[in-house]
Amino acid sequence: MNTTLHDCIKECLNCHGICLNTITYCLEQQGGHSEPEHVRLLLDCAEICQTSANFMLRGSPRHTLTCQICAEICELCAASCGSFDDPQMQKCTDACGRCAESCQQMTAHA
To answer: What pTM, to 2 d.p., does this model score?
Structure first.
């Protein structure tokens, strides 16, 4: 497994976990944190990150397709989380940004 692929899998799995943790955090915080569109985006991001990691782990030749949409959704999620000013949301913003960048690199190397 090459380094780019390995790193992308790692970033996807990390982002998946952080998004799931952030969903729970947002629901507990209520208010703007728990707006349906924001929570849906976190769910979408967690799901596509897991799916992309799975495609790469099993060596699917279509992993670049999932990486492409994963990067797009991660960028949207990073922007959404970045609109809040607290440590958990910053952690999510950072993880989504790293995952988006890693998935973009995977797509570029295809």
So the answer is: 0.95
User: How much is the pLDDT for 1?
Assistant: 56
Residue 60 has pLDDT above 90, yes or no: yes
Cα distance between residue 65 and residue 79, in whole Å: 22
Task: Report the pLDDT value the prediction gives residue 28, as an integer from 0 to 100.
Answer: 95
Which long-range contacts link 17-25 to residues 24+ away (Cβ below 8 Å)? 18/91, 18/92, 18/95, 18/96, 19/43, 19/45, 19/46, 19/49, 19/77, 19/92, 19/95, 19/96, 20/46, 21/88, 22/81, 22/88, 22/89, 22/91, 22/92, 25/88
